[in-house]
Amino acid sequence: MKSSDWKDFTNGIVRENPIFRLLIGLCPALAVSTSAVDALGMGLATTFVLAASNGVISLLRTLIPPDLRIPIFIVVVSTFVTAADYLMLAFFPAIHRSLGVFVPLIVVNCIVLGRAEAFAYRNEVRASLLDGLGMGLGFSLALGLLGALREVFGAGTLFGLAVMPASYPPLLLLVLPPGAFLLIGLLIAGLNRFTRRAP
User: Fold this and answer.
1) How many Cβ atoms sit within 10 Å of the Cβ of residue 144?
2) Domain boundaries defined on the chain
3) Cα gap 35→145, rounded to integer Å
4) CA nearest to 10, candidates 100, 101, 134
5) 72-108: b or e for each residue (b if 16 or more CB lie within 10 Å)?
6) Mean pLDDT within 37-66
7) Whole-prediction pTM value?
8) Pairwise pLDDT comparison (80 vs 10), residue with the higher score
9) Gap between the Cα atoms of 33 and 151, Å rounded
């Protein structure tokens, strides 16, 4: 893998992490990160849509008229969101039921449309696929971390299994949206401190 490919792939994991750096895609982050399973399910669905739509938009970029690019982006993205929705319904019905309306709402997720506009429409297919995978992985890692922390400290479980002693009093605030905001703020502060110390 060339250094430019590696940069395209890793950019969304730390430097431009959608949740911890760009602060976009917070609606699903707050809504579906109450459990690690739901968070990872949403992250993987979004990764699939990001990578696939980035690839197709990049492939067609010379054919897309500038004035029509946003409607065309939405049609491409909605095609892959529908595919992700049906695949999740077929193979992971419990997660699909738990995520509910948030899977179809990937169509208007600002991460997906933002990467289509900012990257895929201006770069070649390979770089766009890597960018979509990296952004999706960064989003999935952030969601998974949020979901795991909220589930462990808010319910005493991880992936539905008890990990805290029976006497543990759950921090119910973490299961609520204000707790998610608080936790995101603490994680951003921790990440900023860590990256400032890094050489």
Assistant:
1) 19
2) 3-197
3) 10
4) 134
5) bbbebbbebbeebbeebeeebeebbebbeebbeebbe
6) 95
7) 0.91
8) 80
9) 8
